[in-house]
Amino acid sequence: MLNLICFSPHPDDAELFVGGILLKHSSKYKIGIIDLTKGEKSTNGDVQQREKEALNSSEILGVHIKENLNIHDTCINHLSNEQLIKVVEIIRKYKPTIILAPYYVDKNPDHREAGLLIKDAIFKAALANLYPKYPVHRCANLFFILQVIK
Ligand SMILES: [Zn+2]
């Protein structure tokens, strides 16, 4: 079980936008970062560099769980049933009290879609007859992360 999950569209978004919050609370609460993609289409760096940096930052931040859902970068889609199931299973597996997700108004389409995907997955994680691999979990605390980059 985790107290808080931060869903991150790419392997640096959580660290860049809420790293301070995660660091502040990681000694007291169990925190996980779930990256949705590997950021393989990014202009900066490459997948190996991003993975290495993500693992290093997780250690520095004291994050307990760091996983990647391996959704293709630039292809996050809140209407994808496959992607929705992946997120629902994470929510049910770790049973977080608080979820952080990107705000669904953002210039980056992956960030927008991730916000909607997480919002929908939280709703569907509470439906007993849907994707019964893990027991239902109701997370009542969703906070959106406003990611502002010029
Ligand atoms: Zn991003």
TrEMBL record:
SUPFAM superfamilies: LmbE-like
Superkingdom as given in the UniProt entry: Bacteria
GO molecular function terms noted in the UniProt entry: hydrolase activity, acting on carbon-nitrogen (but not peptide) bonds, in linear amides
Protein name: GlcNAc-PI de-N-acetylase
Organism listed in the record: Paramaledivibacter caminithermalis (strain DSM 15212 / CIP 107654 / DViRD3) (Clostridium caminithermale)
